[in-house]
Amino acid sequence: MERSQLSFDQFGLHTFATVGDDEGVDRALSHGADINALDSAGRTALMCAVAGEHWQEIDASNASIMTPKRLNTIRRLLSDPRISLFTLNGPQSLMNGVIPLGMAAWLNMEEAVQILLEESFDSVSVDGTDAHGATALMYAARDGGLRVVQLLLSHGARPDFRDCNHRTPVQFALDHPQILWLFETILRRHRWRESQSADRNKLFPSSEGLLDLAFSAMPSDSLEPPPLSIFTSQGTSRLTDTLISSISLPDVPFLHSLLFSPALPASSPPALYPMSTPILVNHPDAAGWSPIHHCVAAKLPCIDILDALYCAGAEIALFTTQDHSTPLHILAKSARLSPEYPDHALSLYHFTVHLVRDLRAPLSARDKNDETCIHIAAEHGNCIELLMILLELDSTGSVRELRNGRGLTALEVSKPEFRIAFGENIERLRSVSVLSMQTIKALASFASLVSFSESQPTTFDDASSLCSPVDLDIQESTHQLLFNLRVCSPAINHSSDPVTLSRLSNFLAEATHLHQGIIRQFRCRVDEATNELEHLRCSSGQVQKLLHRVTLAAIQKLGDKGFDSYQRRRARDSEDSQATMFHDASRCVSSSSLARPKRKATLRESSLPKKGKLLNWFKRIIAHEKPSSTRLQIVYDIDEASCAAGRQVRPVDNLLEEDPPCVEEDVAFDTRIEAALKTCKAVLNASSRDLRAINQCLLSAEQFISNANQAISRAERVARRAIKKRETMLAKIRASKEKNSAQESLEGTPGALGYNFLTLRPSIASLTSVNSEHSVYSLAPTLMENDDEDTRILRRLFQRKIEAGVIASWDEMNKVMDWLRIVREATRGVKRRAYL
């Protein structure tokens, strides 16, 4: 797919989309407008249709914003087979970095959210993140948009996703009890299902008995919360205080009776609840602490209580409402070893490791003073053992190098007696980590940087000492180099006096150093681009493997559940049969050559109708794992014939009101999983198509890098040749002068002080003119007009061709970076929602 960086025309597509003119959008697309192009403001047509022209002034309570024509405009854009996952889910940098679904949720546009999710058949990622890491569910929860929240949850949105500051939708829902209750209900079901898989179970081995309790209290599949009136402030606070009291005692059986009381219908009266109100395990007390915070602050933190809260829907990354501390911050400050319990150190180790590694408590989260838990443990903690555990869990060394609001690292604020926990080679580790902050890849491991610095020898030469690549200004150096070559041009009749010869020699020496520095700087930039290209290729390969695994799991589960392939919702003509997934069988990779699940034979021998369509669809996905073209051009993969669109869409109202299905003992299968399975083929098809386009972008970047490398090599050869010519010219001038001097010595007349050749000596005026910098630079226009072929070549290569190749390669790679993330998240979304 080729996405124009700017599109000023596109047959008026963006203008029609902005005003909600569905007929104008249809005409523009029919005339060949690029649906993935950006307008002059950096917006896609889809975002224009969702946000309109005055999105910053829209009143979310005004239901008249989403007119039928605007909704039809969004439908028409979503129905275009050329639309990419990037267009559907990419952040819009000039619109606060928001994605289309996030914008619709932000503006509380219920109908737009529903159309984006259903008409795209989940190709619009319900958990797609914007430039701030925020999902649409976070916006809806923050603003209390219950209906939008229900729509998002019905499509599998996750309440435990975290933004760039580690906040989750649960954090934003603390002031909205109905939404908070829905989130905890979804988390209960999700964590129970997750625990059914051996490789996904996050509970401590001793806590597995909680699964039976959690199953017995499994809430209904309905997304209708209890009425708002039942969540009284007094009742909710009393229940929260009771939970906290049972944690502090601790009274585990009573805590279990509260957390896992039998589920009740949403319409149940208050009297049926244990304490006359539905339980909210994340609700804070008067001090802003939730039960999870009191759990880690206990004198003897208990894993059984921690896992019970987790199974009941507690958010492990929850911040306190006042000082914005996470459970890890509180643990870092409150933990201390008690001599009364000899195994306390070991139990603290297991508790902390379980909290971070299994339950994903964020080490890098910051409180209101920008302190991490390692800062707190080092400066205010009472347990060096806990500090050592946290440092051990910081395997990359990145968290310990974060600076707080005072600009200090954890080591710098540490108590003197705690500094030994940071290790022996403190200074060396710190210097390397500071260097890592200047690199492009922030995720490079701490250890790899140390090993790199130790393994690379340090070398020096004269050229590098004159102009190192770090501080070299390529543009200024190129101008100086070209000037030096012009001044020393063989086409100029140079004087043979010593001052002129000395100045020409200095110009050539400087030109040699300059061209070496420029070449070295360009090679550094090309090497950097090459390394990034290899990194992106590796990432692309990982996404391709992920797509392969998810496709295998999807085809197996589709067969296991007996789903027929759904009908396409619209007829599509293949615009490029070579690029679609429906092509000659000879082009497909044989499915027998691929690794298959053990149950594959059962699926193949099944008597289910249309089983051939499932297998053929799977083979078409796998057939495109490798790029099929090495062309430089970035082409559109229309893929209309294979984009399996269409499913049995049920109104969300029905989803919310229908009775929950039967839950089997081996798998909890509800309507959301069923819906995810029915749409997974459309998403996986789109992911496969986008990966092929991404590979084309990488091939383009590789070609641009190759062109830049060739231009650099040619520039190096031409520069050496040009300098060699001038050195030869200078040698000839000196030889000619010596020859003339020898001849004149035979013809000279001795004077009183010996042989004087006044007529051959340069005049004061000529010396002044030679030494005058103004006169030399005044020749620049004339010299530029008389550039020799080498100088012209160097000017073109240094000022245009090399730079253009490097910039073009980065343009392609920058596009791929976000695109790969979006494809990865779309594929992972299928895996999460369908529990593959």
Task: Please give a structural write-up.
- The chain is mainly α.
- The protein folds into four domains: 1-157, Alpha Horseshoe (Serine Threonine Protein Phosphatase 5, Tetratricopeptide repeat); 178-322, no CATH class; 324-455, Ankyrin repeat-containing domain (Serine Threonine Protein Phosphatase 5, Tetratricopeptide repeat, Alpha Horseshoe), CATH 1.25.40.20; 536-706 and 818-834, no CATH class.
- The protein is 55% helix and 0% strand.
- It is built from 34 helices and two strands.
- The protein has helices at residues 13-19, 22-30, 45-51, 68-79, 85-89, 100-106, 110-119, 136-142, 146-154, 169-172, 177-195, 210-216, 233-248, 252-259, 291-296, 303-311, 327-334, 344-358, 373-379, 384-393, 410-413, 426-436, 446-455, 462-466, 474-487, 498-561, 600-605, 611-622, 652-657, 671-747, 764-771, 773-777, 780-785, 789-834, and strands at 750-751, 754-755.
- A two-stranded antiparallel sheet has the order 1-2.
- Strand 1 (750-751) and strand 2 form a beta hairpin.
- The longest helix has 77 residues, at 671-747.
- The two termini are 29 Å apart.
- The relative contact order is 0.08.
- The model is unreliable at 1-8, 428-470, 565-615, 624-669 and 749-783 (pLDDT under 50).
Beta-strand percentage?
under 5%
Shape: globular
Can you give the mean pLDDT? 79
Count up the domains.
4
Distance between the termini: 29 Å
Tell me the number of strands: 2
How are strands sequenced across the largest beta sheet? 1-2
Radius of gyration over C-alpha positions, nearest whole angstrom: 35 Å
Q: Kindly name the structural category.
A: mainly alpha
Uncertain ranges: 1-8, 428-470, 565-615, 624-669, 749-783
What does the main sheet amount to? 2 strands, antiparallel
User: Count of DSSP helices?
Assistant: 34
Helix content: 40-55%
